[in-house]
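From the shared-data thread, chain only:
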Amino acid sequence: MAERRLSLDHITVTDTTPWQLAEIAAEVGCAGICPFLHSMEVLPALPDYDLIRDPAALRATRNALAATGVKIDLIYPFTMAGRTNPQDFAPALETGAALGAPRANVLCYDRDPVRRTERLIELAELAATFDIALAIEFYLPSQIRTLRETIDQIERTGRSDIGITADLLHIMRGPEPEQSFALLKHPAIAIAQIADGPATINPDTLEWEAGIQRLLPGQGAFNIPKFINALNANTPLSIEIPQQNNITAQNPKQRAQNAVNAAMGLIRKAGEKDA
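Structure, as tokens:
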């Protein structure tokens, strides 16, 4: 099995700035990061920063990337709702380009399917001027809920520069996990995200689990080796494991290292099954 490129998702250590995230990623053996360009109220542990409006913060992040050799694999947040004007994302995309980001992660909440497609095309055209591609993340509370729906949505745009962020958690919490597993070698899948969780949860805690508290690989019921083996060999893996309940007990590097170690154990297991 080919060696997997590992990326450290910001949500794993939300109590860090992007430049701290890059430093930690290098220390725990990740080649890439997936950072938020600015802090968000829905992730209260994020420090107060804004790479788009603060040149010093942007410079600190660029310096950390240069010093560590870590690259950006995906940038957040790009959320498309009914009233979203894709042109408003130009400053964020410009910042992403300054950081060398290849892709912007997109969540789609627009209920109008025609408008959603038109605006995805508009955003993709805008992003292309910054040499950035899009990656749609399917998510049960959004309007693109499954991998099949994401593939169909991309086909409606007619664009080859729109890919997919495939989160195992969202597959397992969605309505058709087995059908999604069968599609994981689709060429549009740009990056895969791993975490673990119980077989079922209270539906009211879906967003809390996704953004605040997931289980380390091997602690839950998800078949992570099966997920990894279902992907193309060159699909990078992002470690996306928020552990809010450990923020006070463990520093960010400890939490990141625990997440990477747990993931690596199952990546090796997947390799053994694939051999």
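The mean pLDDT is 95.
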